[in-house]
Amino acid sequence: MSSASPLSKSQYLRGLQCRKSLWLYRNRKDLLPETPPSLQMIFDQGHEVGKLAWKRFPEGVLIEADHLHPEDALQATAAAAKSGANVLYEAAALFDRVLIRADILARNDAQTWDMVEVKSSADIKDVYLHDLAIQRHVLEGAGFPIGKTFLMHINTDYVRLGGIDAGSFFTLRDLTEEIKGLIKSVPEKVRLFQATAALDSAPEIDIGPHCSAPYDCEFTGHCWRHIPGYSVYDVVRISGAKVAALRGLGILEIKDIPDGFALSDAQRLQVLVEKSGRPHVDAPEIAGLLNELEYPLHFLDFETVNPAIPPYDGLRPFQQIPFQASLHLLMSPGAPLQHMDFLGDGKADPREGLAAWLAGAIGAAGAVIAYNAAFEGRCLKDLAQAFPARGPALESIQARLWDIAAPFRKGLYVHPGFRGSWSMKSVLPALAPGMSYANLAIADGAQAQSAYLRMMRGDLSQEAAQETRRALREYCGQDTLGMVEILRRLEEIGGGREF
Ligand code: SF4
Q: How many Å apart are CA 358 and CA 390, to the nearest integer?
């Protein structure tokens, strides 16, 4: 795209986050990384929600020309409005050298248009107000008199029963008054961003918190390339002010942070471990936690999806749907390790089958070990509510949950290899080298989610679906086997009991 082409709405919002990002997007598209599956999943979900929103304002005219054909879109919009259409989807408007596409324009009784921006989100965010402001500025400038400005987001109290009722699935918020002040500042910002886009080189803007707020910037691989893989930015919960102070001292590496620099206890521990190269281990506290464990030991992990549009009855928007479980079982110290798992078929609601499987696979006694167990606890509680016949068994499992992440989250065991994180993906390779996720076809929860969503949509060939099932089972099994190895390591340092 040449520097003279109009700004889009998303480029305007990009400029608000970081003008360097805007310049790079306009001038260095070659630096954009491939869209990861997890982000593509969010885009796809947004499109589905956008289409569902049309049912809330039915019988509209869709302006079909895509972003590569803006002239066609502008002409089609003008023609549809002139022909008396009462509702327009994806209407195009150009003003002030900014091109926008409005999700929904609906004629109101006053014969002006109400503008509706649809968000696949549970609530209002600040950036949405700017989104509305730039659209209203352009639409009015382009000759669409606008009455009210609405944001339509998802009502998370909605519970699906039968088909989706678009009337109650969405919440319509009138933000006409809230954006009035913002609209006044739009022309000045537009001029600034157009001037930025036309610069010969990127504006000098340092990295900082704006690189991930309100959105993760795609250019971090470019702008952060001089930052070490493990740096002052990775100190746990460090404030932007403290990072700036350290950068001001010319410090990037954690090992270079001066001893007297003000840090929280957890931060100081992380820095000490990095400087010494040796783990911090509170063996008595860890032993105390381990003493709570009773055999048989069940190592349990769920994989879930949480689509915006609930696919089955009884579900709310964004509710976690466990579709897979892996269970490693150790009946007694030294006994052979057993493994079993459950995986939904992607066609039907997996929850009832999973609830029955859990009730059968996990007996009435013994600890149920999970990594960050609060999540598994919420899933079990939801399953018990949805399938009361399984309630007693599921509540018993929930009551016996034991969180194997606790020693790491509480700072009882801090290893330099954790690099400031207590996630399993950081802890496991440090404690059990060789048990890395690096070579798995599905290597993290986001990939597992997008894989199962593809199975749900039925857009995989039979072979691809089979391979996806294999990869999902391998990934989830790795999580529970990893917990076994982590517990083995904790037992070695926290008491040395037979395991
Ligand atoms: S990575 Fe940060 S500094 Fe670089 S363009 Fe993105 S937001 Fe701006």
A: 9
Is residue 23 within 8 Å of residue 202, measured between CB atoms? yes
Which amino acid appears at position 32 of this protein? L
Q: Name residues whose C-beta falls within 8 Å of residue 286's C-beta, 6 or more positions apart in sequence.
A: 407, 412, 413, 490, 493, 494
Q: Name residues whose C-beta falls within 8 Å of residue 234's C-beta, 6 or more positions apart in sequence.
A: 254, 419, 420, 421
Residue recorded with tokens 């993760």: 216
Are 351 and 394 a contacting pair, CB within 8 Å?
Answer: no
Closest-CA residue, ligand 1 atom 3, reads: 207
Q: How many domains does the chain have?
A: 2
Distance CA 372, CA 378 (A): 11
Residues framing ligand 1 (Cβ under 6 A):
18, 20-21, 24, 205, 207, 210-211, 217, 219-220, 223
Residues 40 and 143 in one domain: yes
User: What are the beta bridge partners of residue 191?
Assistant: none
Residue 123: give its domain's CATH number: 3.90.320
Residues in a beta bridge with 114? 106
Same-domain status, 14 and 148: yes
The 10s digit of each residue's pLDDT in 200-254 is 999 999 999 999 999 999 999 999 999 999 999 999 999 999 999 999 999 999 9
CA–centroid distance, 21 to ligand 1, in Å, is 5
pLDDT tens-digit map of 181-198:
999 999 999 999 999 999
DSSP letter at 372?
Answer: T
Half-sphere exposure of 241 (CA within 13 A, CB side): 3
- Under the banding of pLDDT at 50, 70 and 90, the label for residue 85 is very high
Nearest CA to ligand 1 atom 4: 223
Q: Are residues 173 and 316 both part of a single domain?
A: no
